[in-house]
Amino acid sequence: MGEQHSVKFPQEVIDEYAALGIDLPALFSAGDLGVRMGVQIVEASADRVVGTMPVEGNTQPYGLLHGGASAVLAETLGSVGSMLHGGSKKLAVGVDLNCTHHRGARSGLVTGVATPVHRGRSTATYEIVITDEQDKRVCTARLTCLLRDVDPNSYAA
Fold it and tell me: How many CB atoms are closer than 10 A to CB 84?
């Protein structure tokens, strides 16, 4: 779960954050919770964010993927899209998350794809579709993030 991988970012995004001295993959990662759950972001742009998560280790007592695990994947992907939409001068803060669970998953990887529903100056809303390895929909989520002004120097650790 802790293995390193490379996220595909648009070049203009890489350049914008590099000019500020910001480690883009660390900033747009799943954070500590996502690492523990095995979330990996595979592709990231304001138009589309793709990530995966193993079912194993993220199940509820019946052996099915936990609905909360799907919510973590959905919020991670939607937040990354919102941050990329807002750019380096905005911070995305989730204010509403809705998840509908369609079917269970017992093994393998689930894949989430976040696409924008609305991208404004102060909010961004993404739909996140999570599917199993047979491309069957496991969960549909919608995340709305508030885009707050931020000092780019606050990213420095």
Answer: 26
